[in-house]
Amino acid sequence: MISVLFAVLTSISNACAAVLQRRAASTLPDSEAMRLSLIKHLLTQRVWLAGIALVIVAAVCQGVALATGPIAVVQPIFVIELPLTLLIASYAFRSRLAPSAWSGVAAVTIGLVLGLGASAPTGGTETVEGLSWVPALIITGAFEAVVIAAALRTRGNARAALLGLAAACAYALTAALLKDAVASLDQGDGAEAFFTSWQLYATGAAGIGALYLLQNALQAGSLVASQPMLTLGDALISITYGVTLFGESVRTGWWLLPELVAVALITAGCVELARSPLASGASPRKRRTR
Q1: DSSP labels for 26-39?
Q2: I need a labelling partner for 284 at 20 to 30 A (CA). Which of 3, 57, 130, 148 fits?
């Protein structure tokens, strides 16, 4: 229950951060895409800095969640970040969600419950055994290179979707590295092992890379294009890391059918929710009073 609770807290922080960052990044011209100057300009915007503060809160909550539960359980819970953000935003702005948005909330929620129930992630080790990180990092690096190269050949929503997938892969890698690093706290050396582990510093590097890719995804196109790729990509790639690196298990066989239905529901829900003005960081129009 602790891992689920902190996964939900992570979802709330990450979702709110994404909306704030999208609002800031969308104001920048296309000429800033894939340049370090993009971050320089964003650092001058308070809205973006507020989003970064929430990212830090999310990182702490995520560390607790991963330390107390399997990565294949924790990471998929993050698909609820968009529905939660819309519900919070609608309350803050005192604006009712459209019926289509509520259908999106229902689709994501049902999809998450169905997906976790069908896959039933269990087992696994707290740390990665031996040199298993070597092939994992090589494959991840090659995948990122291919996706980013493809993104640079496109524009608009296509680029946003591809960069969203690249960011998702980087966030999933960050979670796997963080879980491995946090596990060292339970070992004999405790804090010393944690702060001297290469996984901790690799987590920071992967996190910065993920944040950079996310800003470019948000700047390149609409949230409708980037959010589904980011949300589903993070969940599915994290499950892959959980199975291959930590030895966690998920049900296959005929269970793949409801799992695919769950993915379809979550995808449809995310697309519908990302169309909401609240998801893009826009404030709803106030009604005129006579």
Answers
A1: TTS-GGGTTSTHHH
A2: 57
State the pTM of this model: 0.79
β-bridge pairing 248-249 and 122-123: antiparallel
Per the listing, tokens 């920048």 go with 28
Pair 177, 140: CB distance under 8 Å:
no
DSSP 236-282: HHHHHHHHHHS-EE---GGGHHHHHHHHHHHHHHHHHHHTSTTTTTP
What's the pLDDT tens digit per position in 64-88? 898 888 888 888 898 887 787 777 6
Is residue 50 a contact partner of residue 13, using CB atoms and an 8 Å limit?
no
In angstroms, the Cα distances linking 276 to 86, 108, 199 are 8, 15, 38
Is residue 46 a contact partner of residue 21, using CB atoms and an 8 Å limit? Answer: no
Of the chain, the end-to-end C-alpha distance in Å amounts to: 50
